[in-house]
Amino acid sequence: MIPVSVVTGFLGSGKTTLISRVLRDPVYARTAVVVNEFGEIGLDHDLIANSNDSVLTLSTGCLCCTVQTDLARTLMALFDRRDTYDRVIVETSGLADPSPMLQVMMTDRDVLATHQIPAVVTLVDTVHGDLALAQHAEARNQVALADVLLISKTDLAEPADRLLQMLDDLNPAAPRRRTTEADPSIFFGSSSPQALSRRLMATERRRSHGQIETFTITRDKPLPALALTLLLQAIAEHCGPRLLRLKGLVAIQEMPGQPAVIHGVRHVVSPPDFLHRWPSADETTRIAFITRNVPRHFVSRLLDAIEEEVRDAMAA
Ligand SMILES: Nc1nc2c(ncn2[C@@H]2O[C@H](COP(=O)(O)OP(=O)(O)OP(=O)(O)O)[C@@H](O)[C@H]2O)c(=O)[nH]1
User: CobW C-terminal domain location, by residue (predicted)?
Assistant: First the structure.
């Protein structure tokens, strides 16, 4: 039986960062990862640094809405080459309610015959966690279903009493650790089917993602570094609370072959990190957005205007 871990947590809570850390541990190198993203273009596949090729992207719909059968199919396709890995991590989209996918994993005959009942590991971040829990049923269900709760970004802030109270209300039984203290072995303790079923029955019903929009801006030509900096500043300033998530790989004119990785969660847009090389053959700039009422054309025109101004200034 293959051990499975479902790693969930709201947008930008640190799932990909933590999974990349686990995969760097030689003990966990033989771990296959199934990534699901909400949006047009999946980037986590490229952002999870992994030396083997067992990172699979589930179609970039949302696990809780459209691709449940994909999950069973993907796990069984992986199982056909089980000599290449020992365990599986499924990273859910930050916007996913994990309930329907857990139900699939507990009821699909083939999956049940070959995989353990998954352990559910939920990340909650100290900076935006309370807002996410207050505003999104998906985030509350992620916490309610956890076997283990991992608190991330404790280097930026201590968990506030309000956040701890919300976790107590939603899932008092799950042990809590900071991500910095979490031993990777906690990912692969199996859930008890009875306990997981009880938690599943207690989750909130949610049928729509509301006013959430997702789009991806692409550019074939590398951007001047200054244009990227100005774009990120303008987005943080103008879109702040309406920006649920931004992430991307950006070709920079001054750094050929070394793409910038960019991340934003609400008003917090991190300074870019640079990779030594492109993670795949696709070297186009791709910036994915998940927003509430920030239209694609606003960002696209903003980028065009900034880029034009920066190029003019460079030519002068
Ligand atoms: N300071 C700090 N930043 C973190 C920590 N964990 C993650 N981050 C940053 O938070 C941002 C989002 O991290 P990801 O790992 O991509 O988050 P995610 O949950 O996979 O995001 P989605 O897949 O979009 O839901 C990135 O800029 C990370 O570098 C942490 O413990 N401390």
Answer: 212-307
Query: In terms of Cα–Cα distance, which of 43, 122, 65, 62 is closest to 286?
Result: 43
Q: How many angstroms is it from 74 CA to the middle of ligand 1?
A: 25
Q: Tell me the pTM.
A: 0.84
The torsion angles phi and psi of 146, rounded to 5 degrees, stand at -70, 140
* Domains of the chain, start order: 4-201 (3.40.50.300), 212-315 (3.30.1220.10)
Residue of 11, 16, 123, 158 with the most ligand 1 atoms within 8 Å of its CB, for mutation:
16
Query: Using one digit for the tens of pLDDT, what is the confidence trace for 130-188?
Result: 999 998 989 999 999 999 999 999 999 999 999 999 999 999 999 999 999 888 888 88
Atom of ligand 1 nearest to the CA of 123: 19
- Report the C-alpha gap between 250 and 264 in whole angstroms: 14
d(CA 21, CA 111): 27
Which ipTM did the prediction report?
A: 0.98
- Running DSSP on this structure, what letter comes out for residue 115? B
